[in-house]
Inverse folding.
């Protein structure tokens, strides 16, 4: 039986080789680097040659690198509120196959703290022929904390959160 074309397969995001990070800036200019080490997701066909990204990130596992106290504060109710909202999700609008090769805008719905908003991430051009499988798909975007009711700590933290995603995939197993 012939194997379906690569465009028709679901590609799972490999959590071991993928990375989701973010940067916060304090009002004093300090740069705080965060990461979300627990993630899951896939890229799937949605018809007409289009694909869709679906990501789930664990808010309970968010960490601020090198700062255990800040890590706890980011998980608490004033920021990610991980006890009430344990996951951050992103579901992209359908996109064509050229987006991950040549780069461009990836638009979709980000759900954070129970608030859903449309956001845009910029995908970088891929340095390989099979992005996600042979090289990472890298995207970045800026989210405003106030849009997601993360407005506490405004005296200490800047409004913007810069996200950077580096996603690798796992090839579908042969049937």
């Amino acid at each position: 039986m012939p194997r379906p074309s690569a465009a028709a397969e679901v590609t799972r995001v490999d959590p071991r080789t993928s990375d989701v990070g973010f940067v916060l800036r304090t009002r004093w200019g300090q740069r705080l680097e965060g990461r979300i080490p627990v993630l899951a997701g896939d890229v799937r066909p949605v018809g007409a040659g289009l694909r869709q990204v679906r990501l789930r990130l664990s808010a309970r596992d968010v960490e601020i690198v090198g700062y255990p106290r800040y890590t706890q504060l980011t998980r608490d109710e004033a920021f990610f509120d991980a006890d009430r909202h344990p996951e951050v999700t992103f579901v992209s609008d359908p996109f064509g196959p050229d987006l991950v090769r040549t780069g461009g805008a990836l638009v979709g719905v980000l759900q954070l703290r129970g608030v859903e908003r449309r956001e845009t991430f910029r995908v970088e051009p891929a340095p390989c022929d099979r992005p996600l499988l042979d090289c990472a798909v890298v995207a970045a975007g800026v989210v405003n904390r106030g849009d997601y009711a993360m407005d506490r700590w405004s005296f200490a933290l800047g409004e913007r959160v810069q996200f950077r995603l580096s996603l690798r995939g796992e090839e579908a197993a042969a049937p």
Summary: The domain at 6-170 is CATH 2.40.128.110 (Lipocalin). The first strand starts at residue 11 and ends at 13.
